[in-house]
Amino acid sequence: MFYADNRSVVLFSGGHTRAEAGPRSEALSYWEVAEAEGWFGHPHARARAHLEEQARDSFENVLFSICRFNELVGSYPTRVTVVSFDFKRRRFESLHREALRFPSRRFEFVGIDPPGLSESVVTAERTQSARPFESDPYGCSEPVLLRKRIERNPFRHSISYPQGCPELRALISECHKQIYSGALPWSLPAESLLFTL
Description:
By secondary structure, the chain is α/β, with parallel strands linked by helices. Helix 3 (89-100) runs parallel beside helix 4 (119-135). Helix content is 38%, strand content 13%. It has helices at 26-36, 58-73, 89-100, 119-135, 143-151, 161-164, 169-173, and strands spanning 9-13, 49-52, 79-84, 107-111, 192-196. It is globular and about 45 Å long.
């Protein structure tokens, strides 16, 4: 795992999505938990941990974390490991990874479900969260996904990654209704990226 790889970067991903949380982003809240828990027995990981604080949904968690990695390291990751709830596995491994055309052999998903997970949560993931991405892989035209991005940006922060991640500007700034066919920089040499949602 990432704590054994001194070349990896850990990114906690998630924007300022809840007005009631005030200025605390999802990413910062995850970082605070890791800090409070002493980095779960791996305090040296703290120096490699960073925040990605603009993502408003799961697709942006992946794409924006890759961009944030590029901002930090100066190149794109050769490997991506996503840590999230296991019931979201299909959404990340299939829908989001395929939308980004990131090679499956260099993409890993680590899923950990909360205890007592109800079947209704699993059903909602399949029917309400994942399904819209099947017809709108980039979350830019399906009304339910657009509404979610607006609602999950109560402080009206702008997205900086088109500037900070110029190789992906067209992917970030334009709405693509089919899988993006333009050039992607995934073959450039870089280190590994791990992020949590």
